Amino acid sequence: MSNNEKGANPAHFVIFGATGNLATIKLLPSLYNLEAAGRIPAGMRILALGRQEHTHEGWLEHLSKVLHDKFGDKVNRDVANTFAERFTYMAGDLRTPEFYPILKEAVSKPSSSGADTVVFYLSIGPGDFNTVINNLDEVGFSQPRGKHRIVVEKPFGTDLETAQQLNRSLHKHFDEQQIYRIDHYLGKETVQNLLVFRFANTMIEPLWNRNYINHVQITVAEDLGIGTRADYYDKSGAMRDMLQNHLMQLLTVVAMEPPSSLEADAVRDEKVKVLKSMRPIPKSSVNAHAFRAQYAAGTIKGQPVVGYQDEVGVEKNTVTETFVAAKFYIDNWRWRGVPFYLRTGKRLAKTQSHIAIRLRHPPQHLFQNTPLDQIEPNWITLELQPSDFMQMELQVKTPGLGMGTRQAKLNAPYRLGNEAPMESYEALILDVIQGDKTLFIRFDEVEWAWRVVDPIIKTWSQEREFIHTYPAGSWGADESSRLFDCEDQEWRNEI
Ligand SMILES: NC(=O)c1ccc[n+]([C@@H]2O[C@H](COP(=O)([O-])OP(=O)(O)OC[C@H]3O[C@@H](n4cnc5c(N)ncnc54)[C@H](OP(=O)(O)O)[C@@H]3O)[C@@H](O)[C@H]2O)c1
Q: Which of 4, 186, 188, 221 is the one with CA 20 to 30 A from 264?
């Protein structure tokens, strides 16, 4: 068995960017939770790298604050102590080659169990990925080939070409099996539960196609603005930041065929087939398929907030989109003719992600000329956050005389009573530690997702005079409704 096969424990878990936002809000708390669950291998050391100077004690204080901010009084002191003992903090500039021999020395000792694999987690700006990859190679971390693991955060490139360049650079030094491209939406349990819902329930599969489904909506809404990330966001926008990766991944899980097994490549093969079947959007019809807008000033949770153009660090008159909606078709046997409507945005009415699937009307209007003439369609809805559940919306007769209906919801709660939710990063980090790649993205998935959105991005980059706006705290610009194929289709904001 090679060191990189499932089950080979790493000796060192190296976090580039351990002082950054992602490490603070997600990575360190998730690692702590794994410690509490007894899932971190004995002897695995964690090396936290950042630019800021910290003494060992200073770092431990910082770590303790991170955990306290996240878990409050729920931090278990014994677990926190065991966790803290794993850490070494190393300050340095990742852009200077002199930093890497010191890093090499720091991870040269095998763990107490004899393991000597190193995980490198790149929680740093994408502009630094190449620098780190090349420098790791310079000091010999790419040898022997296949040994160490490298975790790459999104965004993976800014378009098809840059994604291919980054991939070539990674492959120069590392094999595909060593590379873990993260899309944390795939770590969400509800997304994994979607696979169970679809493929473990005989009653669902017969409905899951163009014969019964009218359209699919995928919404990832955030009430937050861009915070202090103007520098990154203004060059990126909602299409690159969210739709090309998170929403496209959700689409593939909704639309994929049953895989031959749950092996990583079997699942990913099916997801790629979906992306390859997506109807290309010609430049001439970009505006019929995609819509962009920017938040103006408004109110979030009762508080006034500024518009995007007035956020600190945002370029004046920028046309970077903070809201995007798009319509896609999947030209295959199962989905031909069924529109998939995707939308995502910042400063929307609330933070909520959901998938809403509208079924077709029954073939015969049996209730014509009764008060039921306008019968409501059935929906299957899945909320991914803030809570996670699935439900089917059905019509039932209202009790009493006459023929009225009301909606009944069959709820399939995913979590019962006191079953605690799990951070998506927890599952993903555990998979990296265990060398399981099922929930990570293969390059052809990234590549095909870029192929789908590239024409939209290219067209928008040339149309720089005007962008629609929406008030912060709303559900986005009403004009996005122009994407719908039929008058009776509209966005589902509440589920
Ligand atoms: N934040 C999120 O919610 C989120 C979500 C998904 C993906 N991501 C991705 O995760 C990555 C990290 O994002 P982030 O939000 O955590 O960024 P961030 O807050 O800006 O943190 C960047 C980290 O990189 C370190 N760093 C920067 N330049 C360095 C240098 N020259 N030498 C050594 N260290 C350096 C910083 O160290 P100092 O602080 O010590 O300067 C900091 O620890 C990005 O690729 C981002 O796209 C972030």
A: 221
44-81 pLDDT tens trace: 999 999 999 999 999 999 999 999 999 999 999 999 99
Residues in a beta bridge with 324: 292, 344
Mean pLDDT confidence for 76-101:
97
Query: Is 246 labeled as catalytic in the residue annotation?
Result: yes
Is the per-residue pLDDT at 4 higher than 80? no
Q: Is 393 in the pocket of ligand 1 (CB under 6 A)?
A: no
CA of 12 to the centre of ligand 1 (A): 20
H/E element, 345: strand 339-345
487 lines ligand 1 (CB under 6 A): no
Q: Indicate if ligand 1 lies below 6 Å from the C-beta of 240.
A: no
Residues 6+ away with beta carbon under 8 Å from 242: 220, 324, 344
Shortest-distance Cα residue to atom 4 of ligand 1: 22
Q: Which residues of 75-97 are buried (b: 16+ CB within 10 A; e: fewer)?
A: beeebbeebbebbebbeeebeee
Please state whether the peptide bond connecting residue 471 to the residue before it is cis, i.e. omega within 30 degrees of 0: no
* pLDDT score of 102: 96
- Residue 182 alpha carbon to ligand 1 centre in Å: 15
Rounded distance from Cα 123 to ligand 1 centre (Å):
5
Ligand 1 proximity of 157 Cβ (cutoff 6 Å)? no
Q: What percent of the chain has pLDDT above 70?
A: 97
Q: What is the mean pLDDT of the chain?
A: 93
Nearest alpha-carbon partner for 130 in 102, 175, 173, 170: 170
- The full set of domains in the chain, from first to last, is 10-181 (3.40.50.720), 186-416+443-449+466-483 (3.30.360.10)
The one catalytic residue in 62, 215, 246, 289 is 246
Helices (H), 27-140: 28-36, 56-71, 77-85, 99-106, 129-138
Mutation pick for ligand 1 pocket among 14, 28, 49, 51 (CB with most ligand atoms within 8 Å): 51
CB of 342 closer than 6 A to ligand 1?
Answer: no
237 in contact with ligand 1, CB cutoff 6 A: no
What is the model's pTM? 0.92
Q: How far apart are CA 189 and CA 160, in angstroms?
A: 29
